[in-house]
Design goal:
With 252 residues, the protein is of the alpha/beta class. It is 40% helix and 13% strand. Strand 3, helix 5 and strand 4 form a beta-alpha-beta unit. Bound molecules: farnesyl diphosphate. Farnesyl diphosphate binds next to helix 2, helix 3, strand 2 and helix 4. The site of farnesyl diphosphate (FPP) has 20 residues, from helix 2, helix 3, strand 2 and helix 4. Its EC number is 2.5.1.-.
Length: 252
């Protein structure tokens, strides 16, 4: 039997690339704490399990035709958690970056971070810069990690920069329109998300990509993030392909 026929008999569960699938998927990875709690383990155990899922999801993107993946790792509101959890998460991010740097580079993943770096520790910011630099020539999956990110904070920081450009004569206030502000957002090089997924059964967007998701499709699913899988992402991408996006227009 030829290699081709063999492959046709045993299709990879995520191998078909749907033309109508989302090009940019954004995910609110929720439910790590409850996943750990259900196993009688500390919350950080759930975050570590969640970090393992990130790799699987990044790896299945090319087969699904997902060119951009944006994940919410730490919000501007997450500082309200206990000092132990915040420190544990920061340490997890440092470890993740150090450990995954080579694999992400080799898999042609381009990594970017969005969010305010000012409050993050210098060692973490150094690793973030290094990972961005290391993967800057890659043109496969564009992975964006939102870290100390909040949509309102992002718009406020963008507005501050825009106001400075107006004050210093680089921008005419009469030229400010819907095309102008996104150029000042952290996501200025990314397309808007097509599909936003939130795991863990909560139906809210928690300050994630507020401007960018104005016309995104949403999926709120019950699965806790550490149980999320490539198969589930494929199912959601297929369902997206069935949706009729009109962007406010009426079908002719
Ligand atoms: C929300 O679950 C999850 C977070 C605040 C952290 C997300 C972080 C990861 C998935 C870890 C790894 C990420 C990277 C990029 C390495 P929760 O703690 O609010 O869960 P709960 O609602 O069940 O308490």
């Amino acid at each position: 039997m030829s290699q081709r026929a063999d492959t046709a008999l045993a299709p990879d569960p995520v191998a078909q690339t749907p033309d109508r699938g989302p090009k940019h998927v954004a995910i609110i990875m929720d439910g790590n704490g409850r996943w750990a709690q259900a196993r009688g383990r500390p919350r950080l155990f759930g975050h570590h399990a969640g970090a393992k899922r990130v790799r699987e999801v990044v790896e299945c993107c090319p087969a699904l035709g997902v060119k951009y993946l944006t994940i919410f790792a730490f919000s501007t509101e997450n500082w309200k958690r206990t000092q132990v959890e915040v420190a544990g998460l920061m340490s997890l991010f440092r470890r993740y970056i150090s450990k995954e740097m080579k694999a992400l580079s080799q898999r042609n993943v381009r990594v970017r971070f969005i969010g305010d770096r000012v409050r993050l520790d210098k060692k973490l910011v150094g690793l973030m810069d290094q990972l961005e630099q290391e993967t800057s020539c890659n043109d496969g999956t564009h992975l964006t990690i939102a870290l100390n990110y909040g949509g309102r904070d992002e718009v406020a920081r963008a507005t501050k920069r825009l106001a400075r450009d107006v004050a210093e004569g680089r921008l005419n206030p009469d030229d400010v329109d819907e095309e102008t502000l996104p150029k000042y957002l952290d996501t200025h090089v990314l397309p808007d998300p097509d599909l936003v997924i939130r795991t863990s059964g909560e139906a809210r967007i928690s300050n994630f990509l507020l401007w960018q998701s104005a016309y995104a499709e949403y999926e709120f699913i019950d699965t806790l993030w550490p149980d999320f899988s490539a198969e589930e992402l494929k199912r959601l991408c297929d369902a997206y392909g069935q949706r009729d996006r009109r962007f406010g227009a009426v079908k002719p």
